[in-house]
Write a structure and sequence with these properties.
globular, alpha/beta, binds dihydroflavine-adenine dinucleotide, 284 residues, 8 strands, eight-stranded parallel β-barrel, TIM Barrel
């Protein structure tokens, strides 16, 4: 019931519940010169059939991308692939997706989840990367451990998406103020941008966007040596503007029926969003 009431609001952040709706969003963004990454919503699955359904949905998404000639890759979560069920089972599931992506010269990004999964996600990624070069991972700037992880990933030549981090983490694991997160973000971004392994700078934060543009200009790095990434429904005008200015811009396009946890994270990120949800509910 609450789901039904909330979905019209969630549609600001979620492209739809079906692959057809997601593909139509991708087509629309591609028409503005914006790249995308498709995310089949889902996390923390506890049964093999649920993990297998997620794998099938990703294989289908990759087939659509290939068939329609779209500029899109995919992003997935390891807990959606069965990490909580069995690690090797999860590894096999993701490997199947990487193989299908490789057949279409495409790329798979492993999202980063809460800190209970950081170590396991990176370890599984290292195993996967030994066989599949078309896979990358995400680093969260708020974690104290991230500099060490970034250095290791650079050494391997792995592609990293850098974001602030979307989960609630304790001070023992993560910095807690916006200033400190931004500071970490900039120092990690400078490590990544210098290495030219096509990092993704995933933020909507004007301070970090300007900082990145200045860094690229000052170090005479090519604009196409990295990409900006933003979320579907967040700062769409800036997405188009950056693409028009010649920066590769990729939008994360989530779709599917398991949209609630993703939606909740988006609402938590900004207090104005809580008012937006309440206003919608009371209008009903
Ligand atoms: P910040 O939150 O400071 O926002 C800057 C401005 O952007 C706001 O003032 C507002 O205008 C706009 N904005 C940002 N979020 C908004 C929202 N929810 N609603 C409306 N406006 C909003 N995290 C993670 O832990 N693991 C992951 O794998 C990923 N993956 C990922 C991929 C991509 C492509 C992006 C852009 C982000 C992620 N994230 C993520 C989420 C990330 O960690 C972070 O929580 C959000 O990007 C918000 O942080 P910002 O840097 O955008 O700045």
């Amino acid at each position: 019931m609450l789901n039904q009431l909330l979905f019209p609001v969630a549609k600001r952040f979620v492209a739809g519940q079906t692959i057809q709706e997601a593909i139509s969003a991708v087509r629309h963004l591609n028409a503005f010169g914006i790249l995308t990454t498709l995310d089949v919503l889902g996390e923390n699955v506890s049964t093999r059939p649920a993990a297998e359904a997620a794998v099938a949905a990703y294989l289908e998404a990759l087939d659509w991308i290939q068939r329609e000639g779209l500029s899109s890759n995919v992003s997935l979560k390891l807990t959606q692939m069965g990490l909580d069920i069995d690690r090797d089972y999860c590894l096999d599931n993701v490997a199947r997706i990487c193989e299908r992506a490789a057949a279409g010269k495409n790329f798979v990004r492993i999202d980063m989840e809460g800190s209970a999964y950081t170590e396991r996600t990176l370890n599984l990624f290292y195993d996967l990367f030994r066989k599949h070069q078309n896979v990358g991972v995400v680093i969260q700037a708020y974690l104290h451990r991230s500099e060490q992880d970034v250095r290791k990933l650079i050494e391997l030549g792995a592609r990293v998406r850098l974001c602030k981090g979307a989960y609630k983490e304790p001070p023992s694991l993560a910095v807690q103020t916006l200033a400190a997160v931004r500071q970490n973000f900039m120092s990690l971004a400078s490590l990544l941008l210098k290495q030219r392994i096509h990092p993704a700078i995933a933020t909507h934060d004007d301070v970090l966007l300007s900082w990145t543009r200045n860094y690229i200009a000052q170090h005479e790095l090519p604009k196409d040596g990295f990409e900006f990434q933003m979320l579907y429904g967040v700062r769409s005008h800036s997405q188009r503007q950056l693409a028009e200015q010649g920066y590769p811009m990729r939008v994360y396009v989530p779709f599917g029926t398991h949209w609630l946890p993703y939606f909740y994270r988006r609402i938590r990120e900004r207090k104005e969003n809580v008012a937006f949800v309440l206003k919608h509910l009371f209008r009903k």
